[in-house]
Design brief:
Blueprint (H helix, E strand, L loop, with lengths): L4 H5 L1 E7 L3 H15 L13 E4 L7 H5 L8 E2 L7 E3 L3 H9 L2 H11 L3 E3 L4 E4 L4 H13 L3 E4 L4 E7 L2 E6 L4 E9 L14 H8 L4 E7 L3 E3 L1 H4 L6 E10 L2 E12 L3 E3 L1 H14 L7 E6 L6 H14 L15 H12 L12 H11 L2 E8 L7 E6 L17 E3 L6 E3 L4 H23 L1
Parallel strand pairs: 1-2, 1-10, 2-7, 10-19
Antiparallel strand pairs: 3-6, 4-20, 5-6, 8-9, 9-10, 11-18, 12-15, 12-17, 13-14, 13-16, 14-15, 16-17
Helix pairs in contact: 2-6, 2-13, 4-13, 10-12, 11-12
Bound molecules: flavin-adenine dinucleotide.
Flavin-adenine dinucleotide binds next to α2, α3, α7 and α13.
């Protein structure tokens, strides 16, 4: 795509690099700021905001979020749902552009939302495409030029701001630049970590990135024969027998280990331990029946045994637990044939089975990689960005927003919320900075 001479010859007030959730939010906020100005405090004619996107369309990742339903926020938001080496940055930005303000913002753009019983916010239509459409339609009404297939390869500091180079040889001059390039997670959507390199070349430190919200790998034997089984259970991540985090919900057994929302929540902790100097001793303890205590389970098993003493043990758990899980536990704990009669096992055996069903321990070997991860932990050190404006404290005029920063949230709408909040903040502040000059 050739670039309009008005863009290539002017110094653009705000150039946004990356057209994901954060970049689009920044474009709307900056575009609205300039649309509200009666006189333009710049020389870029009708293009005060330019968004450069490497792919052939903006917002592709948004379409894949929430299994195509886009879990765009969460009610409520708490500081502890976010992780950063500079916690003040997400805390302050999310107070300024908080959850209720985000819902009002989306409503003002024309998107009606719904909140499910777990507090997750979705578009009312449950269509991620509706979210992207609403953002794109708004941008079309604003003085924002969106240029696709423009991967930025280099950002150079100049006296009046920046010179931005793209792979096809285009150069654009900018008073301010917003880095919204995302991280390394899910490279299929255009994220290759290039934002880190652009910022590093300008002197910005990086906190070593690692995949988060990702499936967990266990010893193969621990999941053998259980592939494809889904259960509602509780998973506790333990390190050297100390509990680190506990989550309840749908757990999926796979050929490499475990998946499902509770498992994704635990994955950050796995990576933290593996990256530490004491990486051994990680396990996941699964409670297959979190709604029942051991006594209730013993009572139920005792009744089953006493009522059907001649039945084979393979049916002992039938009616309470997934058949394959029940058989796996019975074989493992009692070490006797599943063809044995139920009446042949003692009360002590039943106690051991009840304990086991609430304490199945799997050895953790790692996590899946960038391709499967939903989010990047680590990234541009947030310590070098003003927690009120997201402007770099090292390079005036440079801003960052979204996943490129060393901020990540839990599963449940927190990461998109961060993208909207930080994108809006950076977009507004960059436009304000140019106009206040
Ligand atoms: C499968 C999946 C499901 C998810 N579901 C949810 C969910 O339901 N709720 C939730 O809160 N979070 C979810 N997430 C996480 C969430 O989507 C991201 O955290 C969020 O989209 C990050 O937004 P961003 O704008 O910072 O980065 P991205 O969305 O990654 O956007 C970055 C953009 O920058 C472009 N780019 C990169 N480098 C350059 C360059 N050098 N030049 C120009 N352009 C560049 C990329 O092509 C991309 O379009 C999900 C993630 C995945 C992968």
């Amino acid at each position: 795509m050739s670039v309009d001479p008005q863009i290539s010859q002017a110094i653009i007030p705000v150039v946004i690099i990356g057209g994901g959730a954060a970049g689009l939010a920044a474009a709307i906020e900056a575009g609205q700021y300039f649309a509200g100005q009666t006189t333009l405090a710049h020389d870029s004619g009708s293009y005060p905001v330019v968004l450069l996107e490497s792919q052939n369309r903006v917002g592709r990742k948004i379409l894949a979020t929430g299994n195509g339903r886009c879990n765009l926020s969460h009610v409520p938001l708490t500081d502890s749902d976010y992780h950063s080496t500079e916690q003040i940055v997400p805390n302050q930005i999310l107070r300024r552009f908080d959850g209720p303000k985000t819902l009002d913002w989306f409503r003002s753009l024309g998107l009606f939302c719904r909140i499910d019983d777990d507090g997750r916010v979705f578009p009312y239509s449950y269509q991620a495409a509706a979210v992207l459409d609403i953002l794109r339609l708004k941008i079309e009404q604003l003085p924002v030029s969106v240029l696709t297939e423009k991967p930025v390869t280099h950002v150079k500091r100049e006296q009046q701001g920046f010179r931005i180079f793209t792979a096809d040889g285009t150069t654009i001059r900018a008073h301010t630049a917003i880095l919204a390039t995302g991280g390394l997670a899910a490279p299929a959507f255009g994220c290759d970590g290039s934002g880190y390199l652009l910022a590093q070349a300008l002197g910005h430190p990086i906190i070593q990135p690692f995949p988060a919200l990702v499936q967990i790998c266990t010893q193969k034997e621990d999941v053998k024969g259980l592939e494809g089984i889904r259960i509602e259970g509780t998973a506790t991540l333990e390190w050297q027998n100390r509990p680190l985090r506990c989550e309840t919900g749908e757990i999926l057994f796979t050929n490499y280990g475990l998946s499902g929302p509770p498992i994704l929540q635990l994955s950050r902790g796995v990576q933290q331990v593996l990256n530490s100097d004491k990486p051994n001793g990680l396990t996941i303890r699964i409670d297959f029946l979190p709604g029942l205590d051991e006594q209730a389970i013993i009572g139920w098993l005792t009744e089953r045994r006493n009522q059907n003493p001649e039945r084979p043990l393979e049916h002992l758990w039938t009616g309470l637990l997934h058949k394959k899980i029940g058989q796996m536990l019975t074989k493992k704990i009692l070490g006797i044939s599943l063809a044995s009669q139920a009446g042949s096992i003692s009360d002590d055996h039943l106690d051991r089975l009840a304990r086991a069903v609430k304490n199945e321990c799997l050895t953790v070997t790692g996590t899946r990689g960038w391709r499967e991860a939903q989010v990047t932990a680590g990234g541009l050190s947030a310590a070098f960005f003003n927690p009120e404006t997201l402007e770099s404290t090292l390079i005036p005029g440079l801003y960052a927003a979204g996943e490129v920063l060393d901020v990540d949230g839990d599963c449940g709408g927190y990461n998109l919320q961060w993208a909207w909040s930080s994108g809006r903040c950076a977009g507004y502040e960059a436009a304000l900075a140019v106009c206040s000059k």
